[in-house]
From TrEMBL:
This is Uncharacterized protein. It comes from Parasphingorhabdus halotolerans.
């Protein structure tokens, strides 16, 4: 009798942290901000806005992200075409918004964010939503090319998806003045 090897929960969290650390600082900031907005964790405008333009952008994101509860409820249970009609257009629309902000520059970053916003049941649908949103004409052709080239063949053609909940949800971290703590 062979024993099935189960992944160590701490190892999975560490892998998620390493993946997050591999993203650029603007992407990390946008993911943390988006999680605050989408999961209603904090006052995103107060936490993240550095000026009136960014405050307006966050307020627009808050308005758009109000769709997430309905999108979560509409995640298809099967692959029947009629079951995706209430889900995919709304998901593609939000994905197009996020990609249009210029901070999510790859499929791994998009997947990282959306797995946390929607949960593991959304995983089978994320490659299609990403490719659809990345193909839309509101993005510059070079941006579209870079986004579409960022999705690996393995991600685009996966035969199955994990149902494991994400465990690492990055948050705002206050800056520490190290000159005051060096004593």
């Amino acid at each position: 009798m062979t024993k099935e090897i189960q992944p160590v929960p701490g190892a999975m969290t560490l892998a998620e942290m390493k993946e997050f650390a591999s993203f650029g600082s603007a992407t990390q900031r946008y993911i943390r901000r988006s999680l605050d907005v989408g999961l209603e964790r904090a006052d995103a405008v107060e936490t993240w806005s550095r000026d009136v333009v960014e405050a307006a952008s966050i307020k627009a994101q808050i308005s758009l992200y109000k769709r997430f509860p309905d999108i979560r409820k509409a995640i298809p249970k099967d692959c029947a075409i009629e079951s995706i009609e209430a889900f995919m257009p709304a998901l593609i629309s939000l994905a197009a918004y996020d990609l249009g902000q210029g901070r999510i520059s790859s499929f791994p970053a998009f997947r990282f964010l959306y797995e946390r916003l929607l949960g593991p049941d959304s995983r089978p649908w994320l490659p299609g939503a990403f490719c659809a949103a990345a193909s839309l004409p509101h993005l510059h052709p070079k941006t579209r090319k870079g986004l579409l080239q960022s999705i690996s063949e393995a991600a685009a053609t996966a035969p199955g998806w994990s149902t494991r909940e994400p465990s690492f949800f990055p948050e705002w971290v206050e800056k520490v003045d190290v000159s005051k703590t060096a004593h």
